Amino acid sequence: MKSVFYYYSNLKGKANRKEFGIYLLIEIIIGFIALELASKISINEYETLIYLFYINLIIGFSTVPFLAVCTRRLNFLNYPSYLIFLIAIPFINQIFVILLLFLKKRKK
């Protein structure tokens, strides 16, 4: 649990399945919060700009730690770190994250 808070932006090192699962759960919760804020957006209100600002802030602050833990998980599984770019491809990113969660460590 200590590594979840101390190494949130560290690209070096390794992340086991438990640490990756905690980050994934936090990412899902943050996504639901952003969706809830997005549902309150109305075109005619001043609060729309505030909600858009908070949505971008929430998503921006949650993306860097999640990409870092994905990179550490790839290091743990002995896969090359450049596979992190698969997160940028729609639909493949969901399969990639599920695979990262359930794959076992491979031998070199």
- Count of extended strands: 0
Helix and strand element order: HHHH
Instruction: State the domain count.
Output: 1
Helix percentage range: 55-70%
Spans of at least 5 consecutive residues with low confidence: none
Question: How far from one another are the termini?
Answer: 28 Å
Keywords: Membrane, Transmembrane, Transmembrane helix
Protein name: DUF805 domain-containing protein
GO cellular component, one term: plasma membrane
InterPro entries: DUF805
Q: Briefly, what is this?
A:
This protein has 108 residues and is an all-alpha fold. 64% of the residues lie in helices and 0% in strands.
Characterization of the model:
The protein is mainly α. It has one domain. The chain has 4 helices and no strands. Helix 2 packs antiparallel against helix 3 and helix 2 (17-39) packs antiparallel against helix 4. It is elongated. The mean pLDDT is 83. One of its GO terms (cellular component) is plasma membrane. The chain crosses the membrane at residues 20-37, 49-69, 81-103. This is DUF805 domain-containing protein. Pfam families: DUF805. Keywords: Membrane, Transmembrane, Transmembrane helix.
Question: Main traits of this protein?
Answer:
108 residues, mainly alpha
